[in-house]
From TrEMBL:
This is Uncharacterized protein. It comes from the Bacteria.
Length: 212
């Protein structure tokens, strides 16, 4: 069972989860850790050739990046949990993209859409669909990386980011808006603990919720 199905089952009993697009729900796990989750529901289209479900860890919160992300002027960064939670709605409907070479971002090479996001502990995870028919090379590359090898990761794209202290060695982001995400090799991501996986379900096109 992947993270997507697990969250879907845990949240099935929440009133309005599947009826209200973009609703935010607070959950508490067995350890009392609060989670935040949002999702937009798409109508089921069985066998849809252009919807390939994906899920991934987009970033970590309250943890310094392993290296400086693009645009941070050489600074490692920390995205605070409060900033990530406030920005969670901005992830829904944003695109995922990739760059030839799988080593960065190309916002004009949009290959999928984010339909769900969840903040659980330090993990901010997303799920959605790749446009499999439009970008057949995506699945070939990701699946071809080797089952269980977990070579692929993710990187967020931000706008309107606010840095608490520009003079600090590690920048703390206290406010931001998500504008998308990139799929790339984990070793090229600012956070090496990110991940990205695609799934070929028996009934393609069913809704995917995200676990963080």
């Amino acid at each position: 069972m992947g993270h997507s199905e697990g969250l879907h089952r845990r949240s099935a009993g929440l009133a309005g989860w599947s009826e209200l697009a973009g609703r935010r729900d607070g959950l508490r796990g067995a350890a009392g850790l609060e989670m935040r989750a949002m999702a937009v529901e798409f109508p089921v289209v069985h066998g849809h050739p252009n919807r390939l479900p994906f899920e991934g860890v987009l970033t970590l919160v309250d943890v310094a990046s392993d290296k400086a992300p693009s645009g941070a002027k050489g600074h490692r960064v920390v995205l605070t949990r409060a900033a990530a939670e406030a920005a969670l709605p901005s992830l829904l409907g944003m695109a995922v993209d990739y760059k030839a070479g799988w080593d960065g971002h190309d916002a004009r090479q949009k290959c999928g859409i984010i339909t769900a996001a969840e903040l659980d502990g330090q993990k901010l995870t997303v799920a959605g669909y790749l446009f499999a028919r439009d970008f057949p090379e995506m699945e070939a590359k990701i699946q071809g990386s080797g089952a269980g090898s977990n070579l692929m990761g993710m990187s967020y794209e931000l706008a309107d980011a606010h840095v608490a202290d520009m003079r600090a060695q590690v920048w703390t982001l206290t406010r931001a808006t998500f504008t998308g995400a990139a799929i790339l090799l984990r070793e090229k991501a600012a956070y090496r603990s990110t991940s990205f996986h695609v799934k070929r379900p028996a009934a393609a096109g069913r809704r995917v919720a995200v676990a963080r």
